[in-house]
Sequence to fold (344 residues):
Amino acid sequence: MNDSPGYFLRENSGTTELGESARTVYLGAQEGLTYIAPFVEDRFLTERSGERTSSLDDPSGLAKLWSSADVDLAVLVAPADVVDSLAGPGDIRAVSRIHQVVDTSRGHAHVMSRLLSRREGRRRRNAERDGFTYDVSHEDEHFYEFYRTMHLPTMHVRYADRARSVEEERAFRTLFRQGVLFRVLRSGEWVAGSVCQIDRERRRLNARLIGIKEGSEVHRAAGAQTYIYYANLDWAASEEGIDLLDFQGCEPFLTKGTFQYKKRFGTTAVIPDNVFGRLRMLIRPKVQSPSVRRFLVNNPVVAENGSGELVATYFFDQNTPVRSDIQHNCPGITEAVSINLDEL
Fold:
C-alpha cells in the first residue's frame, strides 16, 4: 500500500429518504472520489450537512480507517489487490467503472442492421426525416465554437457546480487534433456535436466530449443528442481504420441513466483498459438500517465472477424483493445474481 499514488477520505452526513440520520465515508483513489462518492451520496442522502474531504498523508493508514469508520455506509475504491486484502464478510465487491463499446470491424451493414435494433433503426430514419444529418470537421474554429457554445453549457446543465470536463486547450491538443469533430445539423442548423479521439494503433474511436447548442433541452428532446450516437456509429462503421467505437463509461450501478441509455446503440459492457480497469470498488454496509438496505436494493451493482466476466448483482431481503425492473440485459454482462441482505 505504500506505493499507492495517493488516497482520499471523504465524509458526509445528512438525512435519508426514510428520514433517518446517516453518515457515509469514501476512502480511496481520486477516480472514485470524483465519480463514485457523489453518486453514492446523491442516492443515499437526500439532505447533506457535513461534507469533508481530505487527502491521506500516510496511505498505510487506509486499512485502519476502513475498519474503524463509524458510519452507516462505507465505500472503498482502490487497486484490486488492496480491495481484496481489505474485504471482509458482508462486503460487496464490484468493478469501479464500465465502458460500453461497439465492435465496428465487420462493417457498416453489420453494425446498422444487426447491432441496432429494428426500433432503433426506425428512430434513426425518423430523425433523418425530421431533418437531422451530420458532417465531420477538422477546422479549429469549429472546435472552439463547439467547446464554448455546446460542450460547456451542456455540462453545466447536466452537472451544475459538479460539472467536469477536459480543459479547453488540452481537449484541443489531445482530443480534437488527434481525432474528429462530429457536427449534428437539423435542417442545416448546427445544433449538437461531439469530439472523438482516434487511437490509430488500436484502431479505436473514443467518444470523449458531447454537447448540445447552449445546453438546450428543446434540441435534446427533439433528438439532437441521440443523433450524435447515430453519427458516431455511422462514421466508425464506415472507416476502414476503426474496429471499435468506445462510448466511454459510467459508475458500476445499473441505475445509471447513461448505462441504460447507451444500451440502445448495440453496445457491449466491458471493464475499461485504463486506470479504472485496475481499480475495484468495495461497499461495506456498516449498519443494516432500513435506509442502507433501501440504497442497496435500489442500486444493483456490476461485479465480476470467478472468470472475470461481468455480473449484475441485485439485493433483496425478507420484506423487499429484487428490483427486477432495473434491467441489466446487455452483451458483456453474462449473468445476474441476487444477494439476500438478511444473510450478509
The chain has twelve helices and 17 strands. The longest strand covers residues 189-199. The CA atoms of residues 300 and 314 lie 5 Å apart.
